[in-house]
Amino acid sequence: MPPEKPDRDLLIALQRGVPLERRPWAALARTLGLTEAGVLRTVRELFESGVARRFGAVFDAQSLGYRSTLCAADVPESALEAAVARITPHPGITHCYQRDGHPNLWFTLTAPDGELDGELARVAGTLGGYAVLNLPALRKFKVEAVFGQSEDGPLRPRGPVSAPTGLPAAPLAEREREVVRRLQANIAVTEDPFGRLASELGYAPGDLLALLKGWETAGVIRRIAFVMRHRQLGFLANSMCVWSVPAVRIEAAGVSMARSPHVTHCYERPAFPSFPYNLYAMIHAKTREQAVGIFERLGLDAGLSGGRMLWSVREFKKTSPVFFCEPPPALGKSVSI
């Protein structure tokens, strides 16, 4: 079970990022008026109950020399599971969903800069001959997967939320790449997690924390935090919402939507004749009725009409991006398009 309401501030703080200190739970406890032992107990319960999926770093892919894109295809229901089985072994595919409507198959793909187009062509060929829309983020208005922020209350503007963009990728030494590899896995939940991590990596604790703080300042690391399973927190109605917005209005609309605590991601993406939408907002709610209300309010606050809600129907894959690892494995039999 998720924490009770008295622990809501802690739940939010854990998702926003833990302090880069030798005793992060003690630092959080001081900020929230709790005890270190109580925070550590809650953290362990989150994993034991299945609410927490991962405790590790959330990296800015561009800063590490990678690129990501959102992809969509329309696959007949009878062929969907087989098509998904052919592409999801690719480690660069981190999220893969069936959504209602058309297109119905949505997935994200991450690959080293210079290789993304080739990997996308390989995945598209493996998919089975279905046309794939390439929908990279042209502008990021919000990237903040934090659940539990006033989800039962009205939407209240709280100022623009801007996601770190990171600096241009700089070459990393192999030792630094090993830090990245370790941080994209789970960090052990101990009283001194960064001290233990430093020991595993052959760093002095102070040197490792200095490296991580430098990466955080530069935008290479967005945060070291808890990634939660939102359904276990009660967010069962999830929808990707899209609008067609004139270019001169899209920045104001994106900033408006980023203010909502119900929006975890908000991007400008390219529009296509077959899918003429360029503003995307991902919302999570506890009920379908609440989600519809959020969608309508987002459009009203941004001065938009129309739009579509693409409901999550099935989750085929959900993992974190993997950087500096082995080449992608062979996929299913390629099909010429």
What would CATH call the class of the domain at 5-62 and 168-230? Mainly Alpha
Q: Mind telling me which CATH architecture of the domain at 5-62 and 168-230 this is?
A: Orthogonal Bundle
Q: What fold name stands as the CATH topology of the domain at 5-62 and 168-230? A: Arc Repressor Mutant, subunit A
Number of helices: 10
Series of H and E elements: HHHEEHEEHEEHHHEEHEEHE
Measured on Cα atoms, how large is the radius of gyration?
20 Å
The proportion of residues forming helix, as a percent range, comes to 25-40%
Offer a concise description of the structure.
With 337 residues, this protein is of the alpha+beta class.
Structure description:
The N and C termini lie far apart (47 Å). The protein has a nine-stranded antiparallel sheet with strand order 5-2-4-3-11-8-10-9-6. A two-stranded antiparallel ribbon has the order 1-7. The chain has helices spanning 8-16, 24-32, 36-48, 77-87, 116-127, 174-183, 193-201, 205-218, 250-258, 288-302, and strands spanning 52-59, 66-73, 93-99, 105-112, 132-135, 139-143, 221-228, 237-243, 263-268, 279-285, 308-318. A hairpin with a 5-residue loop joins strand 3 (93-99) and strand 4. Mean pLDDT is 87; it is low at 1-6 and 151-166. It is built from ten helices and eleven strands. It has a domain at 5-62 and 168-230: Arc Repressor Mutant, subunit A (Orthogonal Bundle), CATH 1.10.10.2890. With 337 residues, it is of the alpha+beta class.
